[in-house]
């Protein structure tokens, strides 16, 4: 098999799970060509991401004129397929996005040409957004069959506008990263398409988590990790911290984003400056170090898919406090590997923090080990890549 991956912007520091998946497939002897519409190189810091960027063919880097010439040339050589793909593009953009779908049509024509040049037998897109649209149109041009992975929550916010049902109908198969995710796809797929909806988890590399660091000797240290944006619920976390009755509670907030000034103001307004540390963006090594320095991860999100940070925290032997949304309850088990609370409930979040602070160190350590065992059993990237490889071969 010769597979191509297609992502809108790749690589990105927040999407290392795609790189891990590709590399796991390559370890199985599958040849992978990376396509992306654009690069995010200026924002990349991790040497592994920079190396991945060097391996990726960025379509828009060729410039508009060359892209137009390539696309039109391919369309003229395959007029019937080009017309079919054009009709599909116009139908997909019927709700007011026809102009951008004409751009996707041009991109698809070029990618179809490149797939023919490279002997690609299957095209797999990540995210059910424009990358899946281009993959569908590549197929319309007579290119290889395609599939795509849906992560959420963005796709579930606008399933009609994104034409998820149409994309699933034309795809060889569609992947969700959790059972919850698959259930949402079932809402928008025809019943006849349900057998082609599969769950393949995002994975971690167990070798990078060889053993758990001992829990900190004193205090109650929590770490929250993620982009400082609305859906992550960090403003609610600051409110919950102000409500908490736990003595010596400290929160380290790892990440950056547009809400940082508002969060800093809320921390100051609640008089929590001595209890909260904001680190800004951190690489993988720093994230692991912050997990090792904490008693637990806390995830106050309003919307998620199935966050990689939960998997990494559990692999590091740390219990998790999280909101009971999306695929999170499939991994975090109340009383066994952590605590689950209703999303948007600051008092419940504070209560979970108080419960963690009151839990004996031996019990916390046991919960961390149970968390580690569960995530290693369910999210080994090589096991999940094998599932995906079987789908590609099918």
Automatic annotation (TrEMBL):
PANTHER family xref list: SULFOQUINOVOSYL TRANSFERASE SQD2, TEICHURONIC ACID BIOSYNTHESIS GLYCOSYLTRANSFERASE TUAC-RELATED
Stated name of the protein: Glycosyltransferase
Molecular functions per Gene Ontology: glycosyltransferase activity
InterPro entries in alphabetical order: Glycosyltransferase_grp1 (IPR050194)
Pfam families the UniProt entry points to: Glyco_trans_1_4
Source species, domain of life: Bacteria
